[in-house]
TrEMBL record:
<dbReference type="GO" id="GO:0003677">
    <property type="term" value="F:DNA binding"/>
</dbReference>
<dbReference type="GO" id="GO:0003700">
    <property type="term" value="F:DNA-binding transcription factor activity"/>
</dbReference>
<keyword id="KW-0805">Transcription regulation</keyword>
<dbReference type="Pfam" id="PF00126">
    <property type="entry name" value="HTH_1"/>
</dbReference>
<dbReference type="InterPro" id="IPR000847">
    <property type="entry name" value="LysR_HTH_N"/>
</dbReference>
<dbReference type="InterPro" id="IPR036388">
    <property type="entry name" value="WH-like_DNA-bd_sf"/>
</dbReference>
<keyword id="KW-0804">Transcription</keyword>
<dbReference type="InterPro" id="IPR050950">
    <property type="entry name" value="HTH-type_LysR_regulators"/>
</dbReference>
<comment type="similarity">
    <text>Belongs to the LysR transcriptional regulatory family.</text>
</comment>
<dbReference type="GO" id="GO:0005829">
    <property type="term" value="C:cytosol"/>
</dbReference>
<keyword id="KW-0238">DNA-binding</keyword>
<feature type="domain" description="HTH lysR-type">
    <location>
        <begin position="1"/>
        <end position="58"/>
    </location>
</feature>
<dbReference type="InterPro" id="IPR005119">
    <property type="entry name" value="LysR_subst-bd"/>
</dbReference>
<dbReference type="Pfam" id="PF03466">
    <property type="entry name" value="LysR_substrate"/>
</dbReference>
<protein>
    <submittedName>
        <fullName>HTH-type transcriptional regulator GltC</fullName>
    </submittedName>
</protein>
<dbReference type="InterPro" id="IPR036390">
    <property type="entry name" value="WH_DNA-bd_sf"/>
</dbReference>
Amino acid sequence: MRYSKYTIFLKVVELESFSKTADFYKYSQSAVTQIVKSLEAELQMTLLKRSHAGVCLTSDGEQLIPYIWELAMAEERMWEKAGEITGMDRGLIRIGVFSSIACHYLPGVMKEFRKLYPGIDFELHTGDYSKIEQWIAEGLVDFGFLIRPVRTDYDTIDIMTDEMLAVLPEKHPMTEKTEIPLKAFEDESVILLQEGGNQEIEEHFRKNKIAPHISYYSGDDYAVMSMVENELGIGILSELVMKRCDYHIVTRSLKPELHREIVIAVKNEKNASVAVKKFLQFVRKRENP
């Protein structure tokens, strides 16, 4: 895959690091540094501040970043069009994902898609719902996976309905129940994902006038599973993320039940690159045959 100097510069800004960017693209750090220096020389200005803490944009860089992003997208579309003309499909698709989709849904879809379009590569950005929505709005990803409701001005593709489940230690007394009432979360130590990754859960509590006894927050689904296994509390996780679970824990439906509607959200599908349009068409046919 050919990466332009603009794309590499944007990745340095995103990761705030030359070394992390070099690792991401499997380049040497000196090569990434030289690419940025050449861009600064071409523009006759300093775009990045360097320090031991990392790198960040200068005031000049902040003013130019929207134009650099437009150049990166235009160059990417040029190469995609050239590939389309020559019959060699190629391109790069940037996707915002949360962990359960990244682990248990997207790899299989990517595998199927690459059988048809082996020249199209993927770049995954993992974060919580709020981060992904921000990345879509700022154009840092081509599209992202979100939970309904989403902005009405976004194009969306329905992916799946995913049940949210109570997660209990194996020997917890409530494992004898088939459903766990929300009221129980007021009396138990509760472990939830950090804010930004649990908005549908907190809204479910508010809607049912439940004040859960939250003892721990975690930024990782699997950390929640481990904490529950070690009897630090009970949690709520999605059915999707519980696939291939090796922890000694038990899941039960909530009462009342809670489901999340997972969608792909695109800022403007009509303006998407050729590669992105091909992928979205592929997913749409796959999920809605």
